[in-house]
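HOLO CASE FILE
Compound: phosphoenolpyruvate
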Amino acid sequence: MSGSVRCLIAGNWKMNGLLAESLEFVRQLADNPAPEHVEMALMPPYTLLYSLSAPLADKGVRLGAQSVFYEHGGAFTGSISPEMLRDTGCHYVILGHSERRDIIGEGSELILKKLNASWESGLEPILCIGEHLDEREAGRTNEVLKDQLSVLASVPGDRALTVAYEPVWAIGTGKTATTEQITETHAFVHAELKRLGHDCRVLYGGSVNPANARDILACDGVNGALVGGASLKADSYMALVEAAASVNK
Ligand code: PEP
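Model generated. Tokens follow.
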């Protein structure tokens, strides 16, 4: 990361959002409310990407998807290619989210294929990593994160990449890691990325909301947030952007 780093507030809508309410969400966003050091992005479900692309761009919000398939086209019923995401205006794609690792069974081999296909098409992946509660309690957090980051070992360091550290026990639970845990773990993730030849933003994710965002975003090594529940309402998402705007480090 050379020069100043923009703080990314990325909203992951998961399997939420119908067309009318989503267009209303965008209508409620202020016009280009983020200062230079804050970047806004939203990841709605596939079904909304095309319809929200231009309205979000008008508000200065980048578009992303929540997953992608690793092939570029062909007989893959039900799959979406990276080119299709680019065609809707996507800049980002979330990969390795714990819900896909744990519910769908996505592992490192598949995630690496998706990373490579995304880069081939000009998408910037947001690679999610994070430990389960039993792993943290057993003192295995760094070992788990190191293993999940090892997909980057063979990847050239100049690839557009953002990493999101999301302790699985904090996602959707209302429990956030302490600022000490966040600072310590982000330091480890940045160091591990450096060891692997990468230098990129590391977001925090896990029950970030307007009340705790400022303290979390102020932690050393935190370069933004990946937010689920608190990104579903326009006023809440805007409050996160305001929290990020108030932190200038
Ligand atoms: C997420 O989905 O990545 C997430 C962090 O969700 P929540 O903010 O709801 O915990």
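CASE NOTES: Strands lie at 7-12, 38-43, 61-65, 90-95, 124-129, 162-165, 201-205, 224-227. Residues 12, 14, 166, 171-172, 205-208, 226-230 surround phosphoenolpyruvate (CB under 6 Å).
CLOSED: yes
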